[in-house]
Design goal:
The protein is α/β, with parallel strands linked by helices and 533 residues long. The chain contains 18 helices and 20 strands. Among the domains are: 191 residues, Rossmann fold (3-Layer(aba) Sandwich); 69 residues, no CATH class.
Length: 533
């Protein structure tokens, strides 16, 4: 699967084409953790080069070294054939390296023009800086096809346009090498297509692009070359045309990975969750869930697709008893909850409802707790854990050890602090804690966010098993592949309301992307809100 030359960086990309970047023997240690070990990487000039690997593989550390966030302990960096000592970010920027972060570094209340020049003003007179920047910005927009209104307020722009502003910021500073970190995580499929057209245009103009993503399909669609990291090492380099998703997944994980979700047709039973006219406002009085109707039956997975921030989080929060509702009602296992009901997560758990929150660290775990303590959060009053005076620590640790074995949590150490587990294993702790309670309704938010590809495979299988045991599963995910492969029915949310319902057999990324933008496609069957089956 991997040759010795590949592990050492090899010479697979050294001969022939000129290189924009050459990393030789890069190593970086944080205390006892060796984050990067003897990394060799050659990036061809004017190409799109993908970097993939599981969480903790060392991708972000390597890119942070290249952009000057960290300084390498060992090794050499060559940019355009010249050795470069990158100690701080300014060194990277002066060398023509720019970076577009996953979470945009923009000031929402500033205009596009003000954001672009922020930190790169031409002199003490701001008016003169703005005038010169406007001229340069117009040139960049023409040259690279990045049209943006320079006077627009950034916070009022769609996410895809904000990303263009980030790219323009880097180009304005003279970037000829552009690093993009998980750039499609907040985009609709149509916005992703637009981004890829922009990247192709940048490539045509000679810009070198480093693309960090966990989405193998995107690697195959847009890159020229791809490098794979595992365990802090560079384990393989491939020309994209000479590999496929299955090989890349195996290289990332070190074993064969099932990329398809295998499932039998659902056998839906009685309705377990019914939502009628549900409306929820946030603590600032903004309507986040707007007159929502939906139902989920035993033995089926109903998926909710939508760009993050369109009410999905608030919907799950209300259904799990965390957030009060303002209008409408919902029924779970014959228990009717209205705006006048007094309800909390403890009562919902008593009603056989389990909730896997979208943000495991903010809402699902306490980082300082031991794994055995995190495994009982929310269930600490169960008789098997205590005698109502003191906790039975032996029972808690035995239960934790069993769940760790059942859910393949690594390392299987009940005493290890939660913060010391990888993202995928933290997610398994949350899933095991709630799914092993035999819930009749399971509310799941972003089950594989920030999770390694091997853990994704396990989590998907676990959700299908829950469905097949008769659980009613409501799944929220921004990953359309996940929604389409797991769901028995798909709902799409936009701006707090349900746009429509489609069958997975009829859905594709284009149609779901249109619905995520509040456009109902006319070429597939769509059940509109309020329509009867």
């Amino acid at each position: 699967m991997t040759t010795d030359s590949e592990k050492s960086g090899g010479s697979a990309l050294q001969a022939g084409p000129p290189l924009a970047i050459q990393l030789q023997g890069i190593s970086k240690r944080f205390g006892a953790v060796l984050a990067n070990s003897n990394i060799n990487l050659n990036v061809e000039k004017g190409k799109i080069h993908g970097i993939i690997g599981e969480n903790g593989a060392g991708k972000s550390t390597l890119m942070s070294i290249l952009y000057g966030f960290y300084e390498a302990d060992e090794g050499e960096i060559n940019v355009d054939g010249r050795p470069l000592n990158i100690k701080v970010t300014q060194d990277a920027i002066h060398a023509g390296i720019g970076m577009v972060h996953q979470h945009f570094m923009l000031v929402d209340t500033f205009s596009v023009l003000e954001n672009v020049i922020l930190g790169a003003e031409a002199g003490p007179m701001l008016v003169e800086s703005l005038a010169a920047a406007r001229t340069e910005l117009e040139r960049l927009e023409r040259e690279y096809g990045l049209e943006v209104d320079p006077n627009a307020i950034v916070g009022e722009l769609p996410v895809g346009v904000q990303q263009r502003v980030e790219i323009l910021k880097s180009l304005f500073r003279g970037a000829k090498i552009l690093i993009l970190d998980e750039p499609t995580g907040v985009l609709t499929p149509q916005e992703t297509d637009q981004l890829f057209e922009i990247l192709k245009s940048l490539k045509a103009q000679g810009v070198t692009i480093l693309l960090i993503t966990h989405k193998l399909r995107e690697i195959m669609a847009i890159t020229d070359n791809v490098s794979v990291m595992r365990g802090g090492e560079m384990v393989a380099h491939r020309k994209t045309t000479e590999t496929d998703e299955a090989e890349l997944a195996e290289l990332m994980v070190g074993r064969k990975v099932l990329l398809r979700v295998e499932k039998k047709p659902s056998q839906p039973g009685d309705t377990k969750l019914e939502v009628t006219g549900l409306t929820v406002h946030d603590d600032k009085g903004v309507k986040r869930v707007d007159d929502v109707y939906l139902d989920v039956r035993a033995g089926e997975i109903v998926g909710i697709a939508g760009v993050s921030g369109n009410g999905q989080s608030e919907l799950l929060s209300a259904l799990s008893g965390i957030t009060p509702i303002d209008a409408g009602e919902f029924t779970i296992n014959t228990h009717v909850i209205t705006a006048s009901s007094s309800v909390d997560p403890h009562q919902m758990r008593a009603n056989k409802v389990a909730h896997v929150p979208e943000d495991r660290l903010r809402m699902g775990l306490i980082r300082q707790f031991r794994a055995s303590e995190s495994f009982i959060l929310g269930y600490q009053d169960d008789n098997k854990y205590n005698n109502h005076v003191l906790f039975d620590m032996m029972a808690i640790e035995q239960d934790c050890a069993q769940k760790m074995a059942d859910y393949d949590v690594r390392p299987p150490d009940p005493e290890l602090r939660t913060a010391n587990f990888s993202g995928g294993n933290q997610q398994k702790i949350v899933l095991a804690r709630d799914m092993e309670r035999a819930p009749e309704v399971l509310l799941v938010g972003q089950p594989t966010r920030g999770v390694d590809i091997g853990a994704i495979e396990f989590i998907h299988k676990s959700l299908i098993e829950m469905r097949d045991r008769g659980c009613a599963v409501l799944l929220v995910s921004v990953e359309l592949d996940e929604i389409m492969s797991l769901s028995d029915r798909i709902l799409v949310m936009f701006d707090g309301h349900i746009v429509g319902e489609v069958s997975p057999d009829d859905a594709d990324e284009r149609s779901l992307g249109l619905m995520m933008a509040n456009i109902v496609p006319d070429d597939i069957p769509v059940k509109l809100p309020g329509a009867k089956s």
